[in-house]
Design brief:
heterodimer, A: four-stranded antiparallel β-sheet, B: mainly alpha
Chain lengths: 339, 268
Amino acid sequence: MTKNNRGLSLSSMKLGLFLLLILGVSASLGSLIPQGQSGAFYKMYYGRLLGSLIVFLSLDNLFRSWWFIALGIILAASILSCSVQRIRKLPGRKGWGSILLHLSILVVLAGAVVSGVFGRSAYVEVGVGDSIDLTGKGFPGQVLTLKDFNIAYYPNLEPKQYYSKVALKTNDGREIEREISVNHPLKFKGLKIYQTSYGWMTRGRVIADGEAIPFDLESGGELAIDQNSNLRLKLIFVPDFDEKTGTLRSKSPLPRNPRLACALIQGHNLIEGKILREGETGEIKGYRITFSGYRYYTGLTVKKDPGVTIVYLGFALILLGLAVRYLAPDKKRLRDEVN
Amino acid sequence: MEATFNSLAYILLFITLSLSLISLWKPHKVIEQISLWSTFLAFASLSLALIWRGIYTGRVPFATLYEFTLLFAWGILLLFFIITLRNIKPTLLVALVAFLEIVILSYGGTLSSEARPLMPALQSVWLELHVLTAIIAYGAFGLSFCLGVLYLIKERAGDGGPGKSLPSLGKLDNLLHWSVVVGFPFLTLVIITGAIWAEEVWGRWWGWDPKETWALITWLIYAGYLHARKTYGWQGKKAAIMAIAGFLAVLFTLFGVSLLLPGIHSYV
């Protein structure tokens, strides 16, 4: 960038520094004001006037607001314009390093734009043995099957790693099998699948008014028994039931003493609860409930983002630029500092 | 053992601080020498505490805020020793570094030092590089903060009083610039390694999480420092104030965000 006192041309350092300041201040506002809440939230939390102002200026969604993105674009234009000016002046080795550094930031920003426009991401949950068609999630023709899920523990029973063994059938008819774990996503032709979450599912049935209602639900889920009277059955899985206390708090995360806790609920009121062993059938208010089995489900994030390659290219260029800029021998500067 | 080495480092830093304050009042070569040695022993002791923790937990001590607080203190001392190698060791700098170290370690003492095994998200070589580069970057910024404060003191006091032991304003400004020039590329690496790690673990390389946002704000401040100095010749007082502001942003990124704005970095 050039020193330019006459006015604010795009390549002037005055504009550049001003943009750094404004971006810094805006980003700090974005980190201090809670993002993505409802309009009512801001009015309640900040008062009517300030709350309305926050929504009006898009401070509630600052990093995606038109003016924040516009600031980014102006910064990019400013960096580009002054890099071009510097190239014209035939810089030395350090100068080239510095220009490369500035241009690589533009590559990262371009990658961010591609990420924002073309990136797609979806969260899915699959039980062990189940398959899910990802077409409805924006990944046409891909079918994901969870072959197995397990957790490795440390001796103190804190989790060490989560493993999902999956098979992925792609739209060209190929099928691949991979193991996904945290920090080791599946990568296949631009598609990435991440280990994100997990939980338990239980299976069984309820006989209500002579009619059998089968269930296969995540722990904590509810089964509608009677829509008209808002009667529901809440099902909670306890992997390691504590016989002594009888509470629903599992003694360990391992399925050492599995139970299904069933609670009949109407509206907000608990009517009656019962705890069942695997294979057992119990009765609550005439409803016969059978707990036939349990299994894990895994939570996976499926993602396709062509921007990441561009961003990584930008990162590589930044490293190169830093090396050329700062690792270049410069005897004069060293001498200046010591003296 | 770890606690013993930590306490030892803490005591040695207190000795450094007291001795350097004494020699500010009545300059004495031997006292100055002892206070420097005491700083060096504190550094060694802190290193042993970290190594011991690494052996005890069976992993690099890069996982909790407590561990990073120790590493942060370690990094500032490391950068301090690098500039003392250039024969720059004014007593007031020694006193200020010791004071900053005592503040950081005291804060570290309030954090949970429980040695827990590494959770799955933290098992990544990118995290290790992220922390390693952060030690250097934040160590250099800690040093530049001290130099910025010294600059302001020297400017007010001149060659008398507390300014007596200090090098010239020009030299202080150059040293300050040197430490920012060391810190800035490393901060860039901190952000890059953090982005790659986030992409591998969560599938998003940038998410405007408060910690990420504040690392970027810090980067913008130091980028402003470097550009203003180069183009407008912002040296001296303005530059010193920017370096101090930059370090306040570092402190907010490390501690303020963890306390006030919990996000995805909630474990550090």
